[in-house]
Amino acid sequence: MVPGDPESLRLDDLAHPEPSPGDLLVATLMAGVCGTDHEILEGDIGRPAPGRDRLVLGHEALGRVMAAPEGSDFAPGDLVAPIVRRPDPVPCANCAVGEWDMCRNGRFTEAGIRGLDGYTAEELAFPAGFAVKVSPVLGHLGVLVEPASVVAKAWEHIIHVGSRGQWSADRVLVTGAGPIGLLATLFATRLSEEVHVLDRATDGPKPGLVGDLGAIYHSEGLDRIGDHYDVVLECTGDADLMMAVPAVTGSNGIVCLTGVADEGHQVVVNSGLARNLVLENRTVFGTVNSNRRHYEEAARVLALTDQTWLGRVVNRRIPLEDWKEAYTRHPDDVKTVIQFYDAPS
Ligand SMILES: [Zn+2]
Ligand SMILES: [Zn+2]
């Protein structure tokens, strides 16, 4: 597709990928669709590879290795999740040490998003260094490794910030029960006794998915769900909510923003908030993307999770021939995936 031109979205015949030395050749099994894909369709983000006018979408995928370079950690048959971001060519101090999620010069590329074709294709060739092994226990649910890696990074950084003092994530609030919010809740329940989730939905699959993790689901306003949270993980990208959540943290509270707000929206911020950020050592920070360490942690945690629950997160599976359906939103969607093979239902 051409970023910003939804009409240009189409299923196309591409040449078989030519693996370079060091590349894995992978057959795609599943590709996830998320808000980022919709932002590319709408033209808010998205850039084809140099010299091209169209971009192959897809940054969340699970595939099976068909051929692996000699001496790599991979063998034909392995399940893998490909990593989205590639380090910038300079490279900056962070990309030089594999911390490309913290790139300092912005010249990184991202498969299916920015300057590199994505993973919604039947066959993929990419460097073995950008593949992460997925346990057979997880199977096709390994399509969740990419979104879970974003959550693994968020939690790593929350704990890093928290370690500035005596602190623990005793009381956690997650705002938004989409795929990122639900995965953030899953990670939260591994660390915290008391996890609350706020979402607008009053029916559909979200309340049950939250409840089955042992977390408490709320659909009333932020002012009705208590305060003194040690951590708030904001996963809606709603600018008003992003600016409101610091007020429900306790002293030394941490707000981690993962949702991306629209530009140009005016938000009124109470000066009491600015005052209390200082007087109670509160921290608000943003996080995006993830590196290999986060993918590995995500794959590890997901393999330890109740697979039936994860299967309910991936609640809309669209066969490749019906691909268009995957890009239309439905009210009860949690995670929509395109299936590249005839999976048993
Ligand atoms: Zn995504
Ligand atoms: Zn960099």
Ligands present? zinc ion
What would the CATH topology of the largest domain be?
Quinone Oxidoreductase, Chain A, domain 1
Runs in which pLDDT lies below 50 for 5 or more consecutive residues are: none
Helix count, DSSP H or I runs of 4 or more residues: 8
Question: How many structural domains?
Answer: 2
What kind of sheet is the major sheet? 7 strands, mixed
Mean pLDDT metric = 95
Shape: globular
Strand and helix order: EHEEEEEEEHEHEHEEHEHEHHEE
- The total count of strands amounts to 16
Work out the strand percent: 15-25%
The first-level CATH class name of the largest domain: Alpha Beta
Based on secondary structure, the structural category is alpha/beta
Rg from alpha-carbon coordinates: 20 Å
CATH architecture of the largest domain: Alpha-Beta Complex
Helix content: 10-25%
Distance between the termini: 29 Å
Structure description:
This protein has helices at residues 35-42, 145-162, 179-191, 206-211, 239-244, 271-279, 292-304, 307-313, and strands at 23-33, 60-67, 79-82, 85-86, 109-111, 115-116, 123-127, 131-134, 171-175, 194-198, 216-218, 229-234, 249-257, 283-286, 316-319, 336-339. The protein folds into 2 domains: 6-134 and 315-339, Quinone Oxidoreductase, Chain A, domain 1 (Alpha-Beta Complex); 149-286, Rossmann fold. Helices cover 23% and strands 23% of the residues. The mean pLDDT is 95. With 345 residues, it is an alpha/beta fold. It is globular and about 60 Å long. Helix 6 (271-279) links the parallel strand 13 (249-257) and strand 14. The chain binds zinc ion (2 copies).
